[in-house]
Amino acid sequence: METAPHSRTDTQERGNWIRLRTFIWLRWAAIFGQISALLVAQVYFRLHLEVGLFYLVVGLSVIANLVAMFVFPENKRLSERENLLMVLFDLLQLSALLYLTGGLNNPFALLVIGPVTVSAAALSTRSTALLGATVICLVTFMAAFHMPLRTAEGQVLGISDVFVFGNWAAIVIAVVFLSVYNRWIASEVHSMSDALQATQMALAREQKLSDLSGVVAAAAHELGTPLATIKLVSAELAEELESSPELLEDVHLITQQADRCRDILRSMGRAGNEDRFMQQAPVTAVVAEAADPHTNRGKEIHFSASPHSDSNLPQPVILRRPEIVHGLRNLLQNAVDFAHSTVWVETAWTDDKINIRIQDDGPGYPVHLLRRIGDPFMRHRRGPPDRTARPAYEGMGLGLFIAKTLLERTGAELTFANGADDLENRSTEERRCGAVVVVSWPISKLDAGTGKSGIPLGPNQPLTV
Q1: What is the DSSP string of 313-381?
Q2: CB atoms within 10 A of CB 352
Q3: Which of 59, 164, 277, 406 satisfies CB 3.0 to 4.6 Å to 323 for a cystine?
Q4: CA pseudo-torsion sign 275, 279, 282, 284
Q5: What stretch of H or E contains 263?
Q6: Predicted model pTM
């Protein structure tokens, strides 16, 4: 599958995000609710309960909370295993209370779903499966074995076996459904969050590089005068020291190093500066800048540019925005990665639209994933041929997601297809059967002169000496 590689976030570490303090406060709330329910059952409903055993079970939670408060620091974050043990303890404690108060005859039996829901949202799939299986075993046990609820007169309170089975079935179904549902949604949210964070990091990196190139260009401009002065003075010294070969050699060395400094600054400042004029460029120049890191990777890249139809429209001058450069660079990297030998980059424009079409002669996108291209962390099990051709490539879709997100922020629309799906008629010699991506902008979004976000050059600034 054609995607850019990335380093995948280990979802097993998500448990480290949960603070111990959060569990402590939630447990205090649960303890308060359990004691309140016991007092209401005793005072208002006059139920006969095993008060000693009840307070023993609640006391275990109190002791566990006090130990957690005084032994561990307040800012401690729990590991995956510690989170699992905390939730499992709360589940067993709640099940013990339900055993003492009627089992599934107790309407509070539905609360056993809570720990599994928390696990599905915060812990790993393995931990969630373990807790779900534990809940099903516990409710199955409590359906048959429990201490009955009795009134002060000794009457046993309970529901018919049909309703007990109904409660059991409802809890089991809820555990399975809510676990899968919450886990699915949480995975989607986490994947999108990771992908958006990676997008922000990519954009920030591109912006920093752009800013850095401006600083370097300004430094090259400012240092040009003192370097020229050094060369001038060294040339005059060389004329005066022709009779002293030892000193003349040192003067020539100074001249050479000054030239070297000039060349270094010129190469570093080639990317641009803070001048508003440098923040815009012809569309082909922006495409060439995006493709520059991939032009020497052993694949041939063909560039072409022309207006649509036979019009003589001049080439549009667009904004050199970091989102555009980085987004196009990711698409070109993807094409170069999977091309057999050639990548074609075609730029075309009309009065109101700019299109950039990137195609390679590689295997193309998997047909069954075409509708999902641009989603983050797409998992695709590679077949033996692909695994042989690219044994170390582990694309997860993040590169295309970043490109799509950044380009869509600039107003672009992206279309993904394969060469066989392309309706353009081409000769046999120029047949292109690989992946195709077309990026299209309304020209008003990018035009540096007349667009909505255009950059006016402003008045000429006086030179300062």
Answers
A1: PPPPEEE--HHHHHHHHHHHHHHHHH-SSEEEEEEEE-SSEEEEEEEESS----GGGGGGTT-TT---P
A2: 10
A3: 406
A4: positive
A5: helix 245-268
A6: 0.51
Cα–Cα distance for residue pair 231/223, rounded to 1 Å:
12
- 419: CB partners within 8 A, 6+ apart: 359, 361, 364, 431, 432, 433, 434, 435, 436
Give the tens place of pLDDT for each residue, 142-185. 988 888 888 777 778 778 888 889 889 999 998 899 888 888 88
Contact 27, 90 (CB under 8 A): yes
Mean pLDDT, the chain, rounded, equals: 76
Residue with tokens 């002169």: 449
Q: Which residue bears the tokens 């000693």?
A: 52
What pLDDT, in 10s, does the model give residues 175-201?
A: 899 888 888 887 777 666 666 666 666
CA distance 292 to 47: 80
Q: Which pLDDT does position 210 carry in this prediction?
A: 60
Beta carbons within 8 Å of 23's beta carbon, 6+ residues apart: 68, 78, 86
- Using only the alpha carbons of the chain, give its radius of gyration: 35
How many alpha carbons fall within 13 Å on the CB side of residue 163?
A: 9
Distances (CA, A) of 384 to 1, 335, 388, 391: 13, 21, 6, 10
- In this structure, what token pair is assigned to residue 299? 């694949």
User: Residue 188 belongs to what H/E stretch?
Assistant: helix 161-240
Q: Within the chain, how many helices (H) and strands (E) appear?
A: 12, 10
Tokens 């561990």 correspond to 72
Provide the 10 A C-beta neighbour count for residue 70.
7
DSSP code, position 306: E
